[in-house]
Specification:
This protein is α+β, with helices and mostly antiparallel strands and about 120 residues long. About 80% of the residues lie in helices and about 15% in strands. It has one helix and two strands; from the N terminus they run H-E-E. A two-stranded antiparallel ribbon has the order 1-2. The model has no long low-confidence stretch (mean pLDDT about 85).
Length: about 120
């Protein structure tokens, strides 16, 4: 009888060891699968993040380009307005200078084939 009890204890111990070893192997396999799955998820997340960053960068670059074009157009428009204003001022200044610097006296007569001019400029 004591041999039976001893055999039962040995068998129970052995079965316990086998079950624990099996559970340990299953837990290790589950851990390996979990680590792999987390790495797959991390790679996917990194790819999505990079794609979103690339799209955002392209959109920002497009916005910057449009803003630069608009600012260039505005600057050119202001330059052309200033140039037109300068031309108007210069033309009035030249007209004023020609009127105030001297008197232009002259006589001319038109003949059949040519124009004769006799101009006298008096500076005051």
């Amino acid at each position: 009888m004591w041999l039976e009890k001893a055999a039962i204890k040995i068998q129970a111990w052995w079965r316990g060891n086998v079950v624990r070893r099996t559970l340990l192997h299953a837990a290790l396999r589950a851990l390996v699968i979990q680590c792999w799955w987390r790495s797959v998820q991390a790679k996917t997340l990194e790819q999505r993040r990079r794609l979103a960053l690339r799209v955002y960068t392209c959109q920002e670059w497009a916005v910057v380009k449009v803003q630069a074009q608009v600012r260039m157009w505005q600057a050119r428009r202001r330059f052309l307005q200033a140039r037109q204003a300068a031309c108007v001022i210069q033309s009035y200044w030249r007209w004023h200078a020609s009127q105030t610097r001297g008197l232009i006296r002259g006589c001319y007569e038109v003949r059949a084939s040519r124009l004769e001019l006799d101009i006298e400029i008096l500076m005051t």
